[in-house]
Amino acid sequence: MSEPQLSTTQQQNVDAYWSKNVSLIRTLLAIWAAVTFIPPLFAHQLSQITIIGGWPLHYFLGAIFPILVYLLLILAYWKKMDDLDREYGLAEEEVD
Amino acid sequence: MDPQIKKEGTLIPSSSGGQSGFIRKLNKIYLMYVVGFASFVILMAILNANGVPDRIIGYFFLGWTISIFAAVGILSRTGQLTQYYVAGREVPGVYNGMATASDWMSAASFIGMAGTIMILGFDGLPFIMGWTGGYVLLALLIGPYLRKLGAFTIPDFVSSRYGYGENKHVIRIIALIITIVIGFVYIVPQIAGVGLITSRFLGIPFVIGCFVGLLGVLVCSMLGGMRAVTWTQVAQYIVLIIAYLIPVSVLSFQYTGNPIPYLAYGQVIQKIIAEEQTLFNSPEEISAREAFAAAGQPARAKEPQPYTAPFVRMDLKNFLILTFCLMLGTTGLPHILMRYYTLPSVREARKSVLWTLFFISLLYLAAPAYSANALLTIYTQLVGTPMVDLPSWVTTWSQVGLITITDINGDGLVQFAEIAIKPDMVVLATPEMAGLPYVIAGLIASGGLAAALSTADGLLLTISNAFAHDLYYKVINPKASANTRLALARTLLVIAAVIAGFVASQNIAIIVELVAWAFSIAASTFFPVLVMGIFWKRATKEGGIAGLTIGLGVCLFYMIGSRFYGLDWFGIRTIGSGIFGIPAAFLSIYVVSLLTPAPPKAVTDLMETLRYPKGSPRGSEEGLDT
User: Fold this and answer.
1) What's the rounded mean pLDDT across residues B353-367?
2) How many CB pairs under 8 A join A and B?
């Protein structure tokens, strides 16, 4: 790409930004994995509980709850990365 | 003036006047479209009530659906490469979200999924989690980086990361072959889905239905490429989501007094649990099951399992593995990934995944509600009715073999054990279960058509671009002019469509299974190669080649072995074959990369620029300016 070579300080800036990005991804993926793969392990026990609205808990944790969490995870990543982009001066030029 | 300007369709304006004005114009166009669609449905209802026969209404619905999509496609035609390949990189996040949602939701999601969940009960939920959770991976691990690179196709991305030095085209060719394989196994069932819907609703032969669908797909995508596909997919999303939600909302209101299916179906599940306690072991059911046992059909003589019972139809291990494979597969499907090139910026790409999942979840959260409502209808309105007085929705759909009732114990009444149901039945029959007029059944047909066509559009473009851009332009003739490239892309689109249509019209049973295979293949090839390529600078060309080929090889070996030759490793089902391919691919990228020389500085520098949004390309005729 036709971008100029980065200076050392710019390089350090990019590295710091990237390591924050990676640790954010780690955190969000840990939540993603927990929400997806832990409730099925306890499905038998959870099925004994009925929550408001009438769902057996294990069913709610399989059919509804994960989707809501996935949406929040993507929202969190978008918002947080927006802040990081600006903080490190690495945001895109405005389109308009 | 450039003569090409005249070739541009004018329905969708361009973003040259600024992004916010562009979004306002789009909102206005699609608002008008929704109003037009609603008026059309009301008009049909009035005609139907005044004696116009159902068959005619069916023709109107399908004819209107196909022609409106074709109109959007034709009006979005283009003669520019960036428009043809990536819709000019100016699609706002929310509209790309809608387009990706309908690109993603296929005939199987629309017609089949609710029924599959009804039959599998709790054990069908991997389809819900797997086909939504993949978007988290897409948002965090792949989408923004694809957009930052700003290529045209997925092999483009793979090649700019791994294709360097001698034999630099090898990995692009492997990637394009995998793209085409995934594209074909996925598109054929879509066209078959169109054939199914048109033949059922219009009574025309299946083969003709397939070719009608093909024509619909072609007019949507041929003239305008990605630009036309994007704007028709938005239109198709609107139809499919309205069509999906109306019948289930009415049925939900009838059972619970709450028309919002998402909130109400918990109560329906409670009713199901209550019914099951008396139903399963009633004397009539036991006699029906004993009759099946005596007739030598032990499969149907088994005691049914409660709807919410976990791991009775699929064990925990396969449940988790299937979820995992579907998620990673979602993230590796080229026709979905490709959509992230159409966005104006990296920031918009991150946002767009949120919109995509939001629009998908409107349908995916409602699918279990469909299943629950339909099952309760079967328990309460079908079981126990006399064989001579079956509800009309049973007689309609038994004619096409979606539901069969065998009065095995000869008592003249329907028992649950005597009902055999196919998954497609649930969504198709819900309008009649809810006692809705025929117009709503027509709406469902339109929605299913929209779902199948929108997926087929995206896939067809993916396949033909792999040939025209990756194979011809990038490998065979890099000097080809823009006009040659466009003409070739369009010709290949038609050829690919005709081949897909021909295969679909053969109506081979295995086709339906193949879709599920595409996910394991994508999960074992593109997902590892893309993620390692983005996050690990040391990954080499040889590592990438090893990852794609070994991942694919291991996955196919288990798929074919377990499906046809009784291969069984740890009791894992064919559909979960990716669980072997995924680690094989990651491991081979890792090991082979460490054994081969590090990639050149040009590649690591490029990877470095992918790490932040600043300076993302707005688009070029090359697809890539490296």
Assistant:
1) 95
2) 160
